[in-house]
Amino acid sequence: MLTYLSIAMVCLRSKNKALNSKALQTCATHLAAYAILLFSSCIIIILHRFPHLSDHGKVASILLHVVPPAMNAIIYGLQIKAVREKIIIIFKRATPGKVKVTNCDSQK
Questions:
Q1: From first to last of its 108 residues, what are the pLDDT tens digits of the chain?
Q2: One MF term from GO for this chain (predicted)?
Q3: What is the pTM for the complete model shown?
Q4: Every domain of the chain and the residues it spans
């Protein structure tokens, strides 16, 4: 983690914008995946201290093994330009302004 933070600091001080952008994208995705794993692990440790929350600890333990790998795939998938463009198209199609609302009173 310290390595990625030091790379990010060097990129922020450097003048080469194209190289900085690529390096920061790589570091950001690795740091995001690491933060998700670290956060999930901390939740498990905290919940272990409270025996009356054992059911929550079980759910958190399952999520620790499911969420980070799923988020890892999403984070790295968004780096691929074709995937990112397809997701943008999907979200533009699902905007609330395009939802057709019918009047229930007119159907009576």
A1: 677 778 777 777 777 777 777 777 777 777 777 887 788 788 888 888 888 888 887 887 887 788 777 877 777 777 788 888 888 888 888 766 655 545 444 444
A2: olfactory receptor activity
A3: 0.54
A4: 2-96
